[in-house]
Amino acid sequence: MAKKAVASLQTGSKRLTKAIKMVKSPKTGAYMFVESIMSPDLVNDFLNKK
């Protein structure tokens, strides 16, 4: 399950994207959010990865 909240961040000449993914914890079963700032090319790989 992925919460696809993607915001574009521009710093100088680099273009970055912040992706937020909702992940279920194997220990407690609760959901938590994992955030990462990366290149826009890598967003789909990040969201599809478990």
TrEMBL record:
Originating organism: Jejuia spongiicola
Stored Pfam families: DUF4295 (PF14128)
Protein name: DUF4295 domain-containing protein
Superkingdom in the source lineage: Bacteria
Entries under InterPro entries matching the protein: DUF4295
